[in-house]
Amino acid sequence: KAIKHQQTIIEQSSILPQLAFFANYTSLYPNFFDSMKSNVGGAWSLGVTLQVPLTDIYVGYQAKRSAKAQELIAGLEEKETLRKLSLEAEKGQSEETLAREIFLSSLELRKDITANLNLAKLGYKEGEVSIEKLLRTEADWLQINEEFISALTDLFIKQSALALTKQ
Q1: What CA–CA distance (Å, rounded) separates 9 from 30?
Q2: First-residue to last-residue Cα distance in the chain
Q3: Using 50, 70 and 90 to split pLDDT, how confident is the model at 58?
Q4: Residue of 68, 84, 60 lying closest to 1 (CA atoms)
Q5: CB atoms within 10 A of CB 157
């Protein structure tokens, strides 16, 4: 947006009047102004020039309007980008919160299934639990641990993505 604003100023300057000052010293030999003297003579010329771009006013005005329109577009694009980044940060925050909740619930499930597995092993050793029940409990334990690792990985990814959107 700042670059487009500077381009607008440059385009606007092309239709403004330009004022110039000049000074010139001319030396002549023999002296042009007093021919009887044989020394070098000279004269100063001073001037002021005002240039008004009458023929280029329409082209300059159109270029200025075009530059202002581009500046406005750049400003709107900047606002849109900031809004998208804000929405992306909100989305990342909600996804991270959801991943954290899933991770915490899978952590609780993991604790429960580990305790259940320990009881099943103890019951199998004492002959109270059948081998099928022990194997089902171990399969459940493996499944819950897989879900736990998946939830932990998902939480890590969501936290990393959230950290990137906040930068």
Answers
A1: 51
A2: 21
A3: confident
A4: 68
A5: 13
Q: What is the 3-state secondary structure (H, E, C) of the chain?
A: CHHHHHHHHHHHHCCCCEEEEEEEEEEECCCCCCCCCCCCEEEEEEEEEEECCCCCHHHHHHHHHHHHHHHHHHHHHHHHHHHHHHHHHHHHHHHHHHHHHHHHHHHHHHHHHHHHHHHHHHHHHCCCCCHHHHHHHHHHHHHHHHHHHHHHHHHHHHHHHHHHHHC
Cβ proximity of 80 and 21 under 8 Å: no
Look up residue 70 and give its two tokens. Answer: 């581009």
Model's pTM, two decimal places?
Answer: 0.54
Report how far residue 86's alpha carbon sits from residue 88's, in angstroms, rounded to the nearest whole number.
Answer: 5
Q: What tens digit of pLDDT does each residue of 11-28 get?
A: 777 777 788 888 887 766
Cα torsion through 120, 123, 127, 132, rounded to 10 = -10
One-letter amino acid at 151 equals A
